[in-house]
Design a protein that fits this description.
This protein is mainly β. 3% of the residues lie in helices and 47% in strands. It has one helix spanning 27-30; strands at 3-6, 9-11, 17-23, 33-38, 45-50, 56-58, 66-71, 76-81, 90-96, 107-108, 112-116.
């Protein structure tokens, strides 16, 4: 399974970005899908997750600002990020598979850098 993340960039505080993660085959519809992030000097953390049934889960710091969604026809998972803050600066990774929604699965994509700065 190959995952490909894109959509990162430089944005000012309060701005928005949408990350995309494309996957091969029926990965998106058959698996838990997640977005993780890793800031410099920090551990990788779960940002958002979506189950096969569409149930979503978010870390507290992004609730109300970020939204995870998927388009199974396009085999793509999205992370819409609004009201971005400097503390959201990190490399964002797409992850899929696994048994539990909040634990990482085996499939990882390369990261995409998100920088929030004025």
């Amino acid at each position: 399974v190959q995952l490909q993340a894109s959509g990162g960039g430089l944005v000012q505080p309060g701005g928005s970005l949408r990350l995309s993660c494309t996957a091969s085959g029926s990965t998106i519809s058959r698996n838990f899908m997640r977005w993780y992030r890793q800031a410099p000097g920090k551990q990788r953390e779960l940002v958002a997750a979506i189950s096969q049934a569409g149930r979503t889960n978010y870390t507290d710091s992004v609730k109300g600002r970020f939204a995870i969604s998927r388009d199974t026809a396009k085999t793509t998972v999205y992370l819409q990020m609004n009201d971005l803050k400097p503390e959201d600066t990190a490399v964002y990774y797409c992850n899929g598979g696994g048994t539990y929604i909040r634990l990482p699965g085996l499939y990882w994509g390369k990261g995409t850098q998100v920088t929030v700065s004025s």
